[in-house]
Amino acid sequence: MTNYRWRIVVLLFVATTINYLDRQVISLLKPTLEVVFNWTETDYSHVVMAFQGAYALSYVVFGRLIDVIGTKLGYTIAVCLWSVAAMMHALATSTFGFGAYRALLGLGEGGNFPAAIKTVAEWFPRKERALATGIFNSGTNIGAVVAPILVPWVLGVYGWQMAFLLTGLVGFIWVIFWWWSYENPQRHKKLSKEELVYITSDAESNAGGSVPWLDLLRYRQTWAFVLGKLLTDPVWWFFLFWLPSYFASSFNLDLKKPSLPLIFVYTAATLGSVGGGYLSGYFIRRGWTVNRSRKTAMFLYALCIVPIALTRYATNIWEVVGLLSLAVAAHQAWSANLFTLVSDMFPKNAVSSVVGLGGMAGSVGGLLFPIVVGALLDTYKAAGNISIGYNYLFVICGSAYLLAWLCIHLFAPRMKPIDLPTNSPEAP
Q: Where in this chain does the record put each Major facilitator superfamily (MFS) profile domain (predicted)?
C-alpha cells in the first residue's frame, strides 16, 4: 500500500507553518514598530483587531467557498491572497495602513484551516484524523519557532520592511508544489487501490453537494464546535500576539535578538500538537468509542492549562517558560482534537462549512479579547506594574478550556455522526 496521504499532510504542515510565520512577524517587530509609529498598547490591540475581524469573516466565507469549489482551488486562492497581503505590510506608513494590510492578511489566512481540515477528512479514516490534524497543526508552532530566529536577523540586517517581504514570498513557492501534487483521492494517479480502500474504509454517507449554513446551525453538534472555538481561540491569539512583549516587559528580553525562551515555548506547542492528536487515536485503537476517546483526551489537556495562573508566583523567567510551555502544548493538543470533532460528527460535504462557522466564532472571540487585553495592560502600565495585568489575563486563559469542555459535552453528549439529508435536526 502506498502512503501518499502522508505527503499531503506534509503540504498542509508547510502551509500552516507559512500561515503562522506571516502573522507572527508583527508581534516580534512590535517594539520596533511602537517607536516608528508611536503605538500604545491600545493602538497595537486595534491593529490586532483589524486582523481578527477580517479573519473571522474569511473563515466562514472560505469555509463555504471551499465546500463549493473544492479544496485544491480554494486553498490556492487563500494562500495567494495572504501572501500578497503579507508583502504589502512593507508599504505601510501609518497605523491605519498597518490595520488595512492586517485586515487583508486576515481575509486570506482564514482559508487555511477550513481547507486543511477538509483535506484531512478526504484523505484519512477517522482513526488517523486526529494524528494527521495534530501533525499539520504543529506547523502553527514551527512558524512561531522560526519567526523568533529569522525575524530579528532580517530586522538587524535589512530592516523591518524586508521581514514582511521575505516571509510573504514563501507562500507563492508553496502554491507551486500544492498545485502540482494535490488531487482528490478518487482521482489521484499516484494513489494505490489499497490505500484508497483504506482511506475510504469508514462508512460515511452524504458525499454530495454543500449544505446551507442555516441547516448546519440547527444542529447541536455545530454549536458544540462553535462554542469550543469561541472560548479557547482567543487564548491562542493572546499567546501569539502578546507573549513576546510579555517577556520583553516583564523580563527585559531583547526581541532584536533570537529569543530562546520563545523558541522553547513554541517548540513545546509543536510536541503538544502531535502528541495530542496521537493520544485520542491510541484510545480508539484500544477499543474506546470516539466520544470517550476525544473527550477524555480534551479534558486532560484542559487540566494542563490551568497551572498558567501560577505565573504570578514564578521567581525567574525559566519557571514562567515552563508554565507557558505546558499551556501552549496543551492548547495545541486540545485544538487538534477539537478540529477532528467536526469530521467525527459531520459528513465530508459539510466539514469545511462547519469549520468555517467555528473558526469565525473563535476569531470573533479573538477580536473582542484584545479590547480586554489592551485596557488591562495600559491601565497597569500607567500604574508602573504591567505584570499585574498579565497575571489577570493568565487566570482568564487558565479557566477557559474547562468551560469550553463542559459546553462541548452538554451540546454533544454522545457525539453521534449525523446524516444531514435524512436525520431530524436536534434544536440547540
A: 8-416
User: What integer is the mean pLDDT of 150-161?
Assistant: 79
Give the per-residue pLDDT at 209: 56
CA distances to 63, 73, 159, 163 from 351, rounded to whole Å, are: 8, 17, 42, 35
Query: How far is it, in rounded angstroms, from Cα 61 to Cα 400?
Result: 27
378 and 40 in contact (C-beta within 8 Å)?
Answer: yes
The three-class DSSP label of residue 286 is coil
C-beta of residue 273 within 8 angstroms of C-beta of residue 336 = yes
Query: Does the residue 416 lie in any domain?
Result: no
CA atoms within 13 A on the CB side of 249: 20
Domain around 283: 4-199+207-411
Q: Nearest 10 degrees: CA dihedral of 21, 23, 24, 30?
A: 140
Burial 18-32 (b: 16+ CB within 10 A, else e): bbbbbbbbbbbbbbb
CATH of the domain at 96: 1.20.1250.20
- Cβ atoms of 261 and 253 within 8 Å: the answer is yes
- Who has greater pLDDT, 133 or 178? 178
Residue 427 covered by a domain: no
Instruction: Answer whether residue 425 is part of any domain.
Output: no
Cα separation, 356 vs 111, in Å, equals 8
Higher-scoring residue by pLDDT: 334, 249: 334
Mean pLDDT for the stretch of residues 375-390: 83
Average pLDDT in the chain:
85
Contacts for 283-290 with beta carbons within 8 Å, 24 or more apart?
284/126, 284/127, 285/127, 290/126, 290/344, 290/415
Per-residue pLDDT band for 144 (boundaries 50, 70, 90) equals: low
224: in domain: yes
- Indicate the residue type of 151: V
The region of weakest confidence among 45-59, 167-181, 285-299 is 45-59
